Amino acid sequence: MVEKMNKIHLLMAAADGSKVLAELQNIGVVHVETSAVRDNSGVMELESRISSLKRTSAELKKFAPEEESSVHKPEVHDIESIQRITGEISSEIALLSADNDRYCKDLAVLKPWGRFKRSELSLLEKEGVLITFHVLNPKAYIAADFGNRHIEVIKEGKSGIYFVEIRRNNVEVAAEPPLYPEERLPVIGPEELQRRIQDAERLKDELTTRIQTLYFTLIILEEEIIRLESERERMVAGLSLSEEADGEVVCLTGYLPVSLVPELDEFIEKRSIVPLMKRSQVPGETPIKLKNGPVARLFEPITKIFGLPQYMEIDTTPFFAPFFAFFFGFCLADVGYGIIVTLASLAGFFLLKKKALKSLAALGFILGLTTVIGGLFLNTLFGMKIDGLPNLPDGVASFLLFRDINDAMTFSILLGVVQILLGFAMQIVNKWRQNGFASSLQPVGTFLLIIGVAIWAVGNMGASFVIGPIPVGALIVSLGNTKVIGLGLAAFGVLLILFFNNPEKKIWVRPLLGLWEMYGIASGVPGDILSYIRLFALSLAGGLLGGAINLIAVMVRGDNPNIFSWIFMLLILIGGHFINFALAALGAFVHPLRLTFVEFYKSVGFTGGGKPYKPYGGNIS
Amino acid sequence: MNIAVILAGIGLGLMVGLSGTGSAIGLVIGGTSVIGAVKKKPEAFGSSLVLSALPATQGLYGFVAFILFSGFVTPEMTVFQGALTLGAGIAMGLATLFSAIQQGKVCAAGISAMGSGHDVFGNTFILAVFPEFYAILALVVSILITGLM
After folding, report:
1. B63 touches chain A (CB under 8 A)
2. Is the domain of A172 the same as that of A303?
3. How far is A306 from chain B (nearest CA, A)?
4. Which of A314, A333, A449, A536 is close enough to A409 for a disulfide, judged by CB 3.0 to 4.6 Å?
């Protein structure tokens, strides 16, 4: 959910402004409204210094020594010298690398021509012997008519025939022009190029050793960056203060999560500050702080990929989280892969120290469990059919719900219907909260239309319609006359769409606009639901590829295996399943993500684009 | 071998072959731009990867259509069934081939913009799905064709 925010105005004596701001920065709870100070020269100068320090820091990180003990301590400690020397050395290294790249290219051009010296060619030229270098493709070379010209082939290869033409340049008779266009060879010879490459590499090593000594000053730079960022933040907050009562009083405007109000109250009580606080109602301006339970919080990074919700909009995280987890499991759908992911994540959760990695491991654990469930549902264990395994316990067979691929396909569409209906239910609540009851009637109409059509369609299929073990037909038929109920709901839904699509417009205009809405629903919703069929396709593709790997491994082992056959078989199984797992896991992550961001968000009518809550001083360590 | 099986075989080949080709080309178009974008902005890799993978969908649709139609292909199938399978194969193949390639181009443009520092992930995601609608439409038509068989 999106945490409720209070908009606050803190009134204080102008003389106390700077002091209060510094203290407020330490508690780090207020998101300060700072839109008017971006072009201030002081702020811009600080930002320029921070960027420059970050560039130096990034430059030093590129040359991080493999073993810190092998590097001498630096001789300089002042920031200006560190930046200057780092800049000079890294520029020199970049120049040397560029030179070396050029030399290597030249060397590659000269390589087919073998070893020769430019000076010797010049001597020959003085004696009237001209040597020119040419390359022709083999076909053109065979077809060429050289006549009485003196040609010497240097190298024959698939890419071309490398040859020289030797001509005589007498005083009496000037040399003819060469028969073919001349190859432009580098001026520097191969031996000289080799020497220059070695010199440049040696110099680069020396410079790298020098810059590595500065690596130890990284901590000085990072501390300075934090100090300057804090100063910039304070400056921005100071410039955001508005003056009241002829400059005697200043006012700071910001936002504060309701849960943190006591912290600010305690701060205010000890100082001469007058607070004005009221619940924020403006979606565009209010910053967003997500507040979810421990499990849903694991999925918040996914929410942030697309963008935070607007204030007053429902946070989709807890609603898509169970679907996402199940979709992932349904796509990967292999009990063996699931067990490996679960165990690896469990080990990671207990062994890893960083909080972010622990969260990732916890998410992996959930996705591993859903993969086991998906694998059971779709009857797959390391690419094998579970029901084909010998000595299968009776209890396991009862979990293999969708052995028939048609059932699996219909089930994936059923999942789509459920998630899209949930999306429209959320849209109803969103519109009611944001624009009032009348605005919520159109999504109610769409919701009823989808349900009505679904009841009518399933009713037509009869009570015998089942999806695996789910007696969908019997459940729907038990409602009564499905034709009347279904078409009644759909008709009522259509009426709501036609007459409440734009409540602010005149009533006689709405049916015309409603027809356009109806077209959007008729062309969009079936496609959105059908898009969920990918869940089934991915699971089936992964399972079939796993089965193919098993088949290849068994073929390699043969009917009369020896120890090497068994080893090859094992290698193929491990390598093949590893690749299959990696590809399937990537697909199992990306495709549910797409279903969430496109099909589900579309049905929710998700706007997004909320700006994150960044408390003043919250990032200062 | 009768004419019906030949028609059906060509149809199955087109629905899987062209859709797979389209997805492969679309993925290459997207993937190539990811490399360019991460050179400029390495932290954009995660979201770029997601966008570049979107054209993989059409290949899956082709695969689903293959599963649906392969059950009908038997030595006893009629010419009518064979012709319908061929028609579905052409519809699926062409729609998925071109929509995957064009979707890859939309994704590539978005990825390049993200590499240049623009926050266009959501917009690209929405725009990239438009060409895919016609691949879905072809799949719907294919499913409807199975009803005629």
Report:
1. yes
2. no
3. 5
4. A536
Residue A389 lies in a domain: yes
**Which residues pair with residue A250 across a beta bridge?**
A12, A243
Tell whether B64 lies on the interface with A, counting CB pairs under 8 A. yes
- pLDDT 10s digits, A247-294: 778 888 888 888 888 888 887 777 777 777 777 777 777 889 898 999
Give the domain extent around A333. Answer: 294-604
Residue A571 has pLDDT above 80, yes or no: yes
B45-96 residue pLDDT tens = 888 888 898 898 899 889 888 988 988 999 989 999 999 999 999 999 999 9
Sequence spans of domains, chain B: 3-148
**Is the CATH number 1.20.120.610 carried by domain B3-148?**
yes
**Nearest-angstrom CA–CA distance, A414 and A401:** 14
- For residue A164, being part of any structural domain is answered with yes
Please check whether residue A107 lies inside any domain of the structure: no
Residue A62 forms part of a structural domain:
no
A527, A534, A593 ranked by CB distance to B50: nearest: A593
**How is residue A382 written in tokens?**
């390391």
Q: Which helix (H) or strand (E) holds B131?
A: helix B121-148
**Using CA atoms, how far apart are residues B132 and B25, in angstroms rounded to an integer?**
15
Domain total for chain A?
2
Residue A372 has pLDDT above 50, yes or no: yes
Q: Is the ipTM of this complex over 0.90?
A: no
User: Are A536 and B122 inside 8 Å of each other by CB?
Assistant: no
pTM of the predicted model as reported, rounded to 2 decimal places: 0.76
Tokens of B72: 């009908």
CA-closest candidate to residue A459, choices A493, A494, A422, A487: A487
Task: Select the residue from A523, A591, A606 to test the B interface by mutation, using most B Cβ atoms within 10 A.
Answer: A591
